[in-house]
Design brief:
The chain is α+β, with helices and mostly antiparallel strands and 629 residues long. The protein has helices spanning 6-19, 21-24, 48-52, 71-90, 94-100, 105-114, 132-145, 147-157, 159-167, 170-182, 304-314, 316-340, 352-380, 387-412, 414-417, 423-430, 440-467, 473-487, 504-528, 536-565, 570-596, 598-615, and strands at residues 187-190, 206-209, 215-226, 233-243, 250-260, 266-268, 282-293, 297-298, 342-343, 346-347.
């Protein structure tokens, strides 16, 4: 009946996963030292998103909205808010940073003195040991003030130190983490290469074990290393030769290394000239016969891909957290302007089209903030099944930030285009957010294919159950009941018990979309089988539908929490949630229609031909309506 199996899709999706591997793959690999018995049954996936691809409802990481901080942790992070805010108001100079392309020594000394350079490093190594939610709160403050500076220190705080934190031996942690937390030593992450972008597993940099076995000889180069010009400790990656213990076959696999600038043969190029993030020094890094001690292998030899995946995935929510502060700044400026600016004898806020813009900006900010704290909160509560949700948070947060900034400039008119409000710098600085930490186009394919692979595995299991129905009565009955409900127009998903009364209609919309979505995924599997990986036009719409469904569910959870706790913002949150669910539901149905419609599929073929014409020099860039024949 079903042509697709999980194994078949897994083989085909590996090409895409390798293409977006480090940027996209989930944190499913365990940290070094953890072992799993082959006889152990895998734990059920707790991811809400992963399950709805298979038509199953798993709300453990959705309702209630996570609250991982205890009273002491809340007081602890509250103590940092005023000093960090004061630093940006009194010490950091955003315009100077942008003009000079540098952060002066006095400013950096003040940051080190605050202690926030070791934000996630445990206290035993000199850091603050903040949780993900606490770190997100501080990122919100810095993102509201200076995105470029936030990335300047953030590259050190997260990817520059995370590898050692997650995979370092105790000796490596004792040696390097105190330097990175309080020793005023910068860390950097060097992965991208001249011929390798998203396909990170195919790095060309090579490390060869010396005949004495005491060190590796490292050769190669890295591109666009944030903080590369000032870092003294690099987490980098190279191909190493390993021998398969079972077959004896030699093959190359990526390995992670800790490399010090002081090692002979390490050098960096001049700072790159960029559109934005100018004070975040981005350089090339070169390794010429660098001798790296075997003690500086990070993780296990050949496991560099896993190291890179975990480093990037564990901090993906942070980009959204930074941008929620930026969004808030943009909205505040826009609200102040439209509340005071008079045109045609009326304040701008009195015009419906202005009201719509401001309301949608506020809704996008609310959703992005809700996503960021949902994912970071679940991480702090011990979740490991959050890779789809983290990818969605990154995609939505970076696109919402761009949308809000653009609309704020539009509402401010000519004033928004000037440098003084800072919106033009926000726009320049945030443009790359949709590219790094996983290009959004690749992440969309990752979201769709990862979920579809899970659905394929579910259908494969159902196939086996149908072959022996008497011994699998529970499975067969449950599936049969669900399908009968669909035929009768009654969906099997019900979220009404999780939300407060004013949100029950919105919850019904979300539930209906979940059912429609899972039916669509099943239909795609039946129709396309393993060839679905080649249908990116469809996969992009699957991802967009998935993103909208998750955003609906998350704001339903958060607004319900606010009402039940009697928060002052509860009524406002209800309004935003109701409006968001209405619009998001409409978009889901539009995307499902595009997936199912033959008209849109035919139109894609036309667009494919147009693209082919352009690349073969037949497109509009090579014609002019007034040219003489």
């Amino acid at each position: 009946m079903f042509q697709l199996t999980g194994q078949a899709l897994s083989r085909n999706s590996q090409q895409l996963v390798r293409y977006g591997a480090v940027r996209c793959l989930a944190t499913t690999a365990k940290a070094k030292g953890a072992k799993t018995s082959s006889s152990q049954q895998p734990k059920p996936d707790q991811s809400f998103m992963m399950n709805i691809f298979s038509g199953k409802l798993q709300t453990a990481q959705l309702f209630p909205y996570p609250e991982p901080l205890n009273v002491e942790q809340k007081e602890h992070i509250q103590a940092f808010i005023d000093p960090v805010t004061r630093f940006f108001n009194e010490t950091n100079n955003r315009i100077k940073n942008d003009v000079t392309g540098n952060v002066d020594e006095q400013t950096m000394d003040a940051v080190w003195d605050l202690g926030i350079m070791g934000i996630s490093i445990p206290e035993e190594y000199g850091g603050l040991g903040l949780t993900n939610v606490q770190a997100a709160r501080l990122s919100d403050i810095s993102g509201a003030n200076d995105l470029a500076f936030t990335i300047h220190i953030g590259a050190h705080q997260s990817i520059g130190t995370k590898g050692i934190l997650l995979f370092g031996t105790e000796a490596q942690k004792k040696k390097y983490l105190p330097q990175l937390s309080t020793g005023r030593v910068f860390g950097a992450f060097a992965l991208t290469e001249p011929s390798v972008g998203s396909d990170a597993a195919s790095v060309k940099t090579r490390a060869v074990l010396s005949p004495c076995g005491k060190y590796y000889i490292l050769n190669g180069s890295k591109l666009w290393c944030s903080g590369g010009g000032i870092a003294n400790i690099f987490t980098t990656f190279a191909q190493t030769e390993i021998v398969d213990p079972k077959t004896g076959q030699k093959k190359d696999k990526m390995t992670a290394f800790i490399v010090e600038r002081g090692f002979s043969g390490v050098s960096t190029g001049p700072p790159e000239k960029k559109m934005g993030l100018k004070c975040s020094v981005t350089t090339d890094v070169y390794f010429d016969d660098v001798k790296v001690p075997v003690e500086n292998v990070l993780g296990e030899v050949g496991n560099g891909f896993k190291v890179a995946v975990n480093i990037l995935n564990s901090g993906r929510f942070g980009l959204c957290a930074m941008l929620t502060g930026t969004m808030r700044n943009c909205i505040e400026q826009a609200a102040e302007h439209v509340s005071n600016r008079v045109q045609f004898k009326r304040k701008l806020i009195e015009f419906e089209n202005v009201q719509e813009k401001l309301a949608k900006m506020a809704m996008h900010h609310y959703v992005a903030q809700s996503l960021g704290y949902m994912v970071s909160g679940n991480m702090d509560l011990g979740s490991t099944d959050y890779h789809l949700e983290a990818a969605i948070t990154k995609v939505f947060g970076t696109e919402a930030g761009w949308y809000i900034c653009d609309e704020a400039i539009q509402l401010l008119g000519g004033n928004g285009y000037m440098q003084a409000p800072g919106l033009e710098q926000f726009m320049r600085d945030m443009r790359v957010f949709r590219i790094f930490e996983g290009a959004n186009d690749v992440l969309r394919l990752f979201i769709a294919l990862t979920g579809i692979q899970q659905a394929g595995n579910h259908l494969k299991g159902l196939q086996r159950a149908m072959k022996s129905p008497l011994t699998n009565l529970g499975t067969v009955f449950q599936e049969g009941t669900k399908r009968v409900s669909r035929k009768m127009g009654a969906g099997s998903t019900d979220l009404s018990g999780f939300v407060v009364d004013p949100l029950k209609d919105s919850a019904k919309l979300c539930a209906q979309n979940i059912d429609l979505f899972s039916q669509t995924i099943e239909s795609l599997l039946i129709k396309h089988g393993k060839n679905i990986i080649e249908r990116q036009f469809l996969l992009a719409r699957v991802a967009d539908a998935a993103i909208d469904i998750y955003t609906m569910a998350v704001v339903l959870s958060r607004a319900t929490r606010s009402v039940r706790k009697g928060l002052p913002s509860a009524e406002h949150e209800l309004l935003m949630t109701q409006a968001w669910c209405t619009e998001a539901s409409h978009r889901v149905q539009q995307n499902i229609h595009r997936i199912q419609s033959g008209v849109f599929n035919e139109n894609y073929k036309i667009m494919s031909k147009i693209a082919s014409n352009i690349c073969s020099h037949q497109g509009p860039a090579h014609t002019n309506p007034i040219e003489v024949d």
